[in-house]
């Protein structure tokens, strides 16, 4: 059982869903990311997603795009995510997932990146622009290193393709709950809730179902967990706090910790 699988199993035994928290590495500076990550973990994040900045983040809305721009301007590199993961792993027993587009990993060297990522404490990888049909070499390297391969499904994923994805994904299935890109939403659409219920019925008994895109309030977390999700993925809401408080790492950390604490309460089902 992988570290991510253990985390979901442990949470399920406590009648809790997983709070999966995302940060862009290097925003506002690589040296500050560990402190921000620590605040999320101390606030209750069960799994930490570290986003590796890339100049063309096609799946992301303006909040994360701006974070990526700040990160690249600060000189952030893919290796910084490995350094952050190592520092976090030395202090906390929380699974870490690296989220990256394929280009930075390809340029780093696929096998080299996966091997080093595992050594630094990264438990899983998400590559949004790598189709499952073209992932054979990637999955082979992940299997060798005991790394979870987390694939994405969306409202447009048909039954045949979902079957392919479920055969290759591990750790959790990342369900994109709506059409469009990442970003803060005021409410969870009824269509998203229906989609989660549908996927819950299909995915049950295979891998945990984690839902992302647009989840930005504690009540959103409660909604998706109630609908059948095993975890809620929050990115833009946390990244916006970093943006608004990048002049004070202490203030940003305090606000991240408080929001994570409120979000975590929404995962408790008992």
Give a short synopsis of this structure.
With 270 residues, the protein is of the alpha/beta class. The chain has twelve helices and nine strands. The protein has a single domain, classed as Aldolase class I (TIM Barrel).
Describe the structure.
The chain has helices at 3-13, 33-43, 62-73, 78-91, 102-108, 110-119, 136-145, 159-168, 190-203, 218-227, 236-244, 249-265, and strands spanning 18-24, 47-51, 96-99, 122-126, 148-150, 152-153, 173-176, 209-212, 231-234. 51% of the residues are buried. Strands 5-4-3-2-1-9-8-7-6 form a nine-stranded parallel beta sheet. It has one domain: Aldolase class I (TIM Barrel), CATH 3.20.20.70. Helix 3 packs across helix 11. The protein has 270 residues and is of the alpha/beta class. Helix content is 50%, strand content 14%. The radius of gyration is 17 Å and the shape is globular.
């Amino acid at each position: 059982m992988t570290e991510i699988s253990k985390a979901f199993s442990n949470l399920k035994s406590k009648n809790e869903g997983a709070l999966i928290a995302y940060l862009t590495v290097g925003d506002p500076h690589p040296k500050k990311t560990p402190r921000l990550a620590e605040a999320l973990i101390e606030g209750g994040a069960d799994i930490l997603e570290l986003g590796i900045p890339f100049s063309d983040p096609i799946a992301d809305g303006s909040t994360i795009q701006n974070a990526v721009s700040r990160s690249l301007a600060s000189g952030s590199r893919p290796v910084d995510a490995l350094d952050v993961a190592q520092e976090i792993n030395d202090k906390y027993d929380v699974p870490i997932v690296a989220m990256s587009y394929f280009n930075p990993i390809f340029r780093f060297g696929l096998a080299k990146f996966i091997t080093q990522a595992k050594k630094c404490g990264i438990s899983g990888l998400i590559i949004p622009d790598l189709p499952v049909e073209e992932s054979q070499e990637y999955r082979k390297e992940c299997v060798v290193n005991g790394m979870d391969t987390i694939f994405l499904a969306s409202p447009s994923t048909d039954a045949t393709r979902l079957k392919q994805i479920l055969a290759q994904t591990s750790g959790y299935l990342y369900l994109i709950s709506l059409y469009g890109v990442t970003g803060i939403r005021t409410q969870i659409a009824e269509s998203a809730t229906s989609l989660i219920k549908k996927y819950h019925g299909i995915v049950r008994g295979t891998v945990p179902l984690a839902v992302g895109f647009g989840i930005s309030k504690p009540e959103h977390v409660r909604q998706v967990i109630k609908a059948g999700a095993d975890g809620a993925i929050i990115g833009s809401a946390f990244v916006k706090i970093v943006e608004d408080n990048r002049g004070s790492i202490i203030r940003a950390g305090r606000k991240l910790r408080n929001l994570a604490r409120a979000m975590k309460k929404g995962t408790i089902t008992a």
